[in-house]
Design brief:
Blueprint: H1 3-7, H2 15-29, H3 39-54, H4 65-76
Helix pairs in contact: 2-3
Length: 94
């Protein structure tokens, strides 16, 4: 769940924008005001999103080419990739 999408905010939103968006959504979907069946669930999601943002949640950065190279190197240089019963497990080819 992306809490910024739940509150309808861009990732660059300021604290004031976050508070204003939270209050607007809370006012609209609060179970005491909104009698819809999904009002409780939606308000719980709004509260969770607000809490995540205020505690410093940020989306994970997109993977880079360097990340892919590291994964590739770890996979293809590991002994477990090569099946050879005559060599000890845990070392590289010599």
């Amino acid at each position: 769940m992306n809490p910024y999408e739940v509150l309808g905010l861009p990732l660059t939103a300021t604290r004031k924008q976050i508070d204003v968006a939270y209050r607007a959504k809370a006012k609209r979907y609060h179970p005491d005001i909104n009698t819809a069946a999904e009002a409780n669930a939606r308000m719980a999601r709004i509260n969770e999103a607000y809490e995540m943002i205020t505690k410093g949640w940020r989306p994970a950065p997109a993977p880079t080419l360097r990340d892919a190279e590291v994964v590739y190197a770890r996979y293809y240089t590991s002994v477990t990739y090569f099946v050879d019963a005559t060599r000890p497990i845990g070392g590289f080819w010599r």
